[in-house]
Specification:
By secondary structure, this protein is of the alpha/beta class. It is about 40% helix and about 25% strand. It contains twelve helices and 14 strands. It has a six-stranded mixed sheet, sandwiched between helices. Strands 2-1-4-5 form a four-stranded antiparallel sheet. A four-stranded antiparallel sheet has the order 12-13-11-14, with helices on one face. α3 packs across α4 and α8 packs across α11. It is elongated and about 75 Å long. The relative contact order is 0.13. It binds adenosine-5'-triphosphate (ATP). Adenosine-5'-triphosphate binds next to β2 and α1. The site of adenosine-5'-triphosphate (ATP) has 11 residues, from β2 and α1. Its main location: membrane.
Length: about 325
């Protein structure tokens, strides 16, 4: 129970997973409230899929405990499974069946009453705008349509918690936006909690709260707004005639450490708007353009992990390549 007297949709305490010598998840703890859209944000290999696998009862924890919809993920696996819907990275639809047949098959597995089945199938197909394609075989669907059908299937048995592992990975930006509009709509129409993983910063913005996970640990957890505010600094980028001279002048005259990122001299200051007029007056190096930005989730990630999510992913890809060569 929490302060509002409601038990959380997900409660996690010291949850850990070891694979041989590797601690993939290092004793994490958090709570997800009922009705929340909660995101796990982190680079490839951070431990997101392993965590979601444990919460869904597919991966056995090495330590700690977790409760989903009030049920123990180790001691009450069947109860947990009845109360959750899954949308995973690897598609598991039957391509040679129609959209409706796929849903019906799933509904039967979950023991949905026959009388309720037709109405619920129609309802979930409407939710993801696939009602008019219900009699088409899945093999004729685009990647985005398949993902939408998987979401519909995950919702069919009215789960209390819907788990989505990277729900928009591999989709084009327009389709990704459409998936997010369906997920946002769900929040209004169903009594459901959504737990998802992503490595897209811009998608984390849609979540009520996010946990940033890196190397198997939760680095920080809060609303996207509070996380951005916690960085407390604006990012200023200037294009100059002489970057080296500008960096030296910033250090000597303003005590600000700058570097060149994305082709511009870049630094962080508490209030960009107040700083820019002083910059023009006192830098002593010609400035061609100035760009001031409020902190983004990229800055949050950088602030708490010391790296950008892209660099972290490039690093893990390098590591994977090195492992392959051995
Ligand atoms: N079955 C397994 N056996 C051994 N190691 C594993 C296994 N599953 C995951 N790992 C390792 O655990 C770590 C965390 O992996 P996980 O898949 O949870 O990360 P992730 O954040 O979900 O990344 P991705 O987005 O790439 O799936 C990685 O180092 C991975 O190689």
């Amino acid at each position: 129970m929490n302060a509002t007297g409601e038990s959380p949709a997900i409660a996690v305490e010291g949850l850990a997973k070891r694979y041989g010598d590797l601690m993939a998840v290092k004793g994490i703890g958090f709570e997800v409230r009922r009705g929340e859209v909660f995101g796990f944000l982190g680079p490839n290999g951070a431990g997101k899929t392993t965590t979601i696998g444990m919460l869904c009862t597919l991966v056995r924890p090495s330590g700690g405990a977790a409760y989903v919809a009030g049920h123990d993920i180790v001691g009450e696996r069947d109860e947990v499974r009845r109360n959750i819907g899954l949308v995973f990275q690897d598609p598991t639809l039957d391509a040679y069946l129609t959209a409706e047949q796929n849903l019906r098959f799933h509904g039967e597995l979950y023991g949905l009453p026959r009388e309720a089945m037709n109405e619920r199938i129609a309802q979930v197909l409407r939710m993801v705008d696939l009602a008019d394609r219900k009699d088409d075989k899945v093999e004729t669907f685009s990647g985005g349509m398949k993902r939408r059908l998987e979401i519909a299937r995950g919702l069919l048995h009215s789960p209390r918690v819907l788990f989505l592992d990277e729900p928009t990975v591999g989709l084009d930006p327009q389709t990704r936006a459409a998936i997010w509009s369906y997920l946002s709509r769900l929040r209004d129409t169903e009594d459901i909690t959504i737990f998802l993983t992503t490595h897209y910063m811009e998608e984390a913005e849609y979540c009520d709260r996010i946990a940033i996970i890196d190397h198997g640990e939760i680095v920080v957890l809060d609303t996207p707004g509070a996380l951005k505010a916690s960085v407390g600094k604006d990012r200023v980028q200037i294009a100059t005639g002489d970057d080296e001279a500008a960096i030296t002048a910033l250090r000597d005259r303003f005590g600000v450490e700058a570097g060149v990122h994305e082709g511009a001299v870049t630094f962080a200051v508490p209030s960009g708007e107040e700083f820019v007029p002083r910059l023009f007056a006192e830098l002593g190096v010609p400035i061609r353009s100035v760009h001031v930005a409020r902190p983004s989730l990229d800055d949050v990630f950088m602030n708490y992990t010391g790296t950008t999510i892209r660099d972290a992913e490039a690093g893990s890809a390098d590591m994977a390549r090195r492992m392959m060569r051995r």
